[in-house]
Amino acid sequence: MNDSKSVKNLIGENDLVLVYLNEKRQFLVQITPHLKLSSDFGELILGDVIGKPYGYIGKTHLGREFYCLKPSTADLMMKVKRTTTIVYPKDTGYLLLETAIGPGSKVIEVGTGSGALTLVLAKFVAPDGMVYTYDRREEFIENAKKNIERAGYINNVEFFCHDVAEQEFLQKGVDAIFIDVPEPWTIIPKAAKVLKGGHHMVSWSPNVEQVKSTVDALQNNGFIRIKVSEIVEREMLVRQQGVRPRERGVTHTAYLVTSQKILGSGFEI
Amino acid sequence: MNDSKSVKNLIGENDLVLVYLNEKRQFLVQITPHLKLSSDFGELILGDVIGKPYGYIGKTHLGREFYCLKPSTADLMMKVKRTTTIVYPKDTGYLLLETAIGPGSKVIEVGTGSGALTLVLAKFVAPDGMVYTYDRREEFIENAKKNIERAGYINNVEFFCHDVAEQEFLQKGVDAIFIDVPEPWTIIPKAAKVLKGGHHMVSWSPNVEQVKSTVDALQNNGFIRIKVSEIVEREMLVRQQGVRPRERGVTHTAYLVTSQKILGSGFEI
Amino acid sequence: MNDSKSVKNLIGENDLVLVYLNEKRQFLVQITPHLKLSSDFGELILGDVIGKPYGYIGKTHLGREFYCLKPSTADLMMKVKRTTTIVYPKDTGYLLLETAIGPGSKVIEVGTGSGALTLVLAKFVAPDGMVYTYDRREEFIENAKKNIERAGYINNVEFFCHDVAEQEFLQKGVDAIFIDVPEPWTIIPKAAKVLKGGHHMVSWSPNVEQVKSTVDALQNNGFIRIKVSEIVEREMLVRQQGVRPRERGVTHTAYLVTSQKILGSGFEI
Amino acid sequence: MNDSKSVKNLIGENDLVLVYLNEKRQFLVQITPHLKLSSDFGELILGDVIGKPYGYIGKTHLGREFYCLKPSTADLMMKVKRTTTIVYPKDTGYLLLETAIGPGSKVIEVGTGSGALTLVLAKFVAPDGMVYTYDRREEFIENAKKNIERAGYINNVEFFCHDVAEQEFLQKGVDAIFIDVPEPWTIIPKAAKVLKGGHHMVSWSPNVEQVKSTVDALQNNGFIRIKVSEIVEREMLVRQQGVRPRERGVTHTAYLVTSQKILGSGFEI
Fold this sequence. Notes:
Four copies of one chain form a homotetramer. The first copy, chain A, is built from six helices and 15 strands.
């Protein structure tokens, strides 16, 4: 059991902190000794929060309070430097639980993109698991690498700048495969060969036609228990003047496809 | 990198297998040497699948195929023996990512219930983290313990048969607190004392009034960045005859509340 | 301005009354002098309510109260004798307002079905307008005719037992066309010829593929401002113990397509 | 039956035309002899469309096509000059069908606002029915009057600049009452006295608390069959590159309350 002495909750050098002034002014910041941040609420001397606990309340030079919060996994995703559209936390949480992965798992991701999903997978297969992530665009991998390094999960990721349409996967017997490319059906036959039997292949796409082609490819490559879902997040505003859903917002991100591989001709693992 | 020799994908004694005949006939089974299962599709000799790989296709004595699949985390949740309503995977995935927890975290759960959430938390704080779960009903804890033991995460859970309305929490400085009781607002002041500053308190409730009282209590106990959301899962049926959303289904489970603690009078951690 | 003398609110012979005992026991009844109804709440002597006002509270012979309510247009739709799936009030209300029709309009409906939509259209084009409704199945028309006669709108409907795939429409210059058949795209070229320029063609279908083919046909036949929507009704339960959305329910009925015709080669009206 | 000679589809002086250039450039215009309209697509000489049929394709002086379309009822609502938030067509269509009103009905509306609902009610009770609309703000009534006059339904509306919180309704025995004020529960006792027995009272509000107070007041004033719903419109984009729901949009307008009056102490009509 914990006791108060062993609780480590102090902000250290290079830690990620969610600096929160209000809903419209929140920043994910990596703390360094002399860091300052400027906002219209005044200057924040962030170097000074080293050694303070998370939850600390600081003040800008104009006297506005700011809060040093622990970033959630969703914050880490949403605040990556983006070179692409990212998969949303609402969808990621669902997909994560629809597979069997956890600490120690080996996972392939196709379509590194900005690395938002990569870092979540890396976090949840740590300390001993590994994410093998593929993208054919060198500049995307460079950016994703920085995003994941900053989040602290670089040791659980291997990057491959391969076009999987042209080359084979370099792993065999992985616990799950996550596909985030515009044409998942072109990847599925190859991916099926390196996924463990009985395990999970997941993908997501914005359009109905993509989902249909993906489902076809899954059915033709020995996958069963294929399910397609949409996850809609609906925020409720809880205020003194009354409770109601938010009036405008995101109404669609992607259709999510989950499936499991069965063994048969051509699949021995 | 993996090579095919090191891939371990064989079903062993006591492993959990999702035995799948079709959408309406799927069972989460712990495999033992002489296990048989009877269904209207015939008898399944499940002892025989020991040593076979996941993804294996067996046959009932009536010649119907069955598939030995790896259960997803969502399967483990949905197939616990239930003494209570459980939180759904769609909501759990969202809540998990809205906190900072991962391998190594210390988490308090209030309201063990059937242990569906407990096992997910245990899985994702493993191998070094710990879930401290509280329930005042002995029989619920007994059932939950069995569910979590079967799922293989018992080493990452400590159970407390306490009424937290009457006793203090026995941990200090935890990374997140998950509250699943009908009146979360009665727990929040105590819970606030043992949560690390800057970290996450989450709860969920079916009714608007509960959410309102919870938000009030959070605001009065030093929490900020309070957000209330609903997660709606909408299944799409992708079939030869056409693609469309499922015509009937679940339309509400719970409103989800997330928040973060700031330090101040009375909260030193 | 009304005065109380001129208010006519008495139930007459042949009037339709919604007899309401509770949520699960409500019946749309045409009142006749000696009518009795039996339910597990006792016998209702409905002949006796002639001359009573709407809103009247009667009692069964077991002493349970029943209420004589005015049926809404939605009640008239939902309580037709059904030979087919019907279009829901939530969808009908939307479609009605997405056209320009009102008292005096001439409207074509293709696919009479059970006549649920027919009676709504007839009601809202009365007293001088007309609905021309087509179905190739004699028995459907017979049933729909009875449904509309009972609802009191028979004078505003003309029925045609034609297969519009094989025969031309017998009207020209109608104000709107409502298409409720499995393959709307087969009807659209013919329908386009008899719809007034600038006016509205609407259809609805459960599947995405149907909607896509319909939109294609509209684009190829001189229609613009094509819009596809889904209308989701979400019931809120407002009870002493709390307010929340209903937990299970209808999650999909149909995609609704609206469009307007422009003039051009081949369309002179 | 119609024949082509009797079809009247020509645009006349003072007619309302929806002038459509593209999705972002559409205008509801009342046509007058020398009317010109300027847009970034060029000048439109709208006086020239008098005598042309609806569906006519004109050209701007820059050669861009514009279409002269028949405005739908929803267009008439959405394009009123607004002094207030208006009720949306998706909600209006639902509410209209949840009452019994049609040609010839007498209806009270409380909260004229911009007159968007007033004109829909007026349209569907025409030619012999009447809408009695109340607002305590003179300037709102003046604006609404112009909106309804332009739409052509002024003969079916009587306006009352009364504060119904302080004065009685001037009608008795109406077929339905529509309440669009922030505190419907303050109006309900008075409104109940002038509504026909068995008939419909409807209201709508953005917040849960408002709905709860409204439902309480309805229960305390002899109303049954109280139902609360939300209507969510979800647009699907059907394009060459794929079909998907629109990515951002309206996520909440109002909760809709419908109910029916029963007779009893104090209510004789």
